[in-house]
């Protein structure tokens, strides 16, 4: 944020005197890149090459006609109504994870909420995809493998000069083997499902039954594995970090917890939330939105200019790397009053109408906006509601919680918490 104060919302420089780089927190320029002239801005090498080598060629990592074809095929499955079948699956995962957490609190007083939410989000995405036939050991392998792969991708981003060493020391080969093993687990899940005749309301069912408009055919097994693997990569760590930051904020704002609980009593009394209830849990939704504003897990995005371009006098030569700085946008004083304050009221319906479209982008914007946005909102609302019915958390004395901007925005070393005395 100091950079923005010093240079304004857009800052251009040359990397090593060669490649031009633009960092921008200007909502108008970001809208130009992601929406108005999006055809001229491709995804960077990080997503299309580095990530796709291990995470496969799914929606997040492909481009052009193939991306368009896949997005058209998969998008209907993520419409709100379609996701309603996932509420019961999510509720059952959340309740079992909370049982485990309660058991943990019997043995230890302090937990790392970042790790707990990582496990919660992993289980939610895993069971939402494969509601049946998920052996605990397979899921554990899947989770460990995906974490290993993500760590390796991060290493390459942070220390690109070591890439030759990673090749020579066999780390690439090892990561390739991990990716192959991961794909095999997913393939086994798909094979098992193909042998089933029952009706399922999970994402795998949606992927298996989706048909291309022109051919009337479904996806091949390779495509199914690619797309499900991408859901894990894109929808696990993001949601986990968002939830961890939400607990961090709530622990400092008991008055907000109080309001959520009032809403729970009013809307649900003692029953579990249904899909229709989610819309009525509007304050809880505002809390989610405000948390994603202050700590957007996708804190930065990346694009590359495919041809020379210009925006309001700013030259954007072909090959320029552009980084929309979402964290910065979300804290611009011109758009957000007292931007560093946690204030869910700013997302009240009547206050959001006049807000400029690209001043709030936790899920990106334009045609490549997150396909999982409704999934993530639903998951976060359900986790918050079900948890607060059973417990809430207090921060323990520790060194300051420092945001660590890796691929997603996480807290360095996690966030330590204990159970609040009065749940
Ligand atoms: C709080 C949670 C989440 C956040 C903050 C988030 C954020 C984002 C952002 C910013 C993008 C755009 C990336 C770009 O344009 O470069 C994106 C894309 C994507 N997200 Fe999410 N996401 C979340 C949860 C999920 C979930 C739960 C899923 C799936 C179950 C998911 C699946 C995807 C996919 C497949 C894409 C690529 C879409 C495309 O390019 O067509 N995300 N996400």
Description of the structure:
- The chain has 423 residues and is of the alpha+beta class.
- It has a single domain, classed as Cytochrome P450 (Cytochrome p450), CATH 1.10.630.10.
- 55% of the residues lie in helices and 10% in strands.
- It is built from 19 helices and twelve strands.
- The chain has helices spanning 2-7, 27-36, 45-55, 64-74, 80-83, 86-107, 113-129, 136-158, 163-168, 171-195, 203-209, 221-235, 237-251, 254-268, 275-280, 282-294, 326-329, 349-352, 373-390, and strands at 10-15, 19-24, 41-43, 110-112, 303-305, 309-311, 314-316, 321-324, 393-395, 403-405, 409-411, 416-419.
- The strands form four sheets. A five-stranded mixed sheet has the order 1-2-8-5-3.
- A hairpin with a 3-residue loop joins strand 10 (403-405) and strand 11.
- Helix 7 (113-129) crosses helix 13 (237-251) and helix 13 (237-251) packs across helix 16 (282-294).
- The longest helix is centred in the middle third of the chain and has 25 residues, at 171-195.
- It is globular, with a radius of gyration of 22 Å.
- Residues 59-60, 71, 125, 230-231, 234-235, 238-239, 242, 297-298, 301, 362-364, 368, 370-372, 375-376 line the site of protoporphyrin IX containing FE.
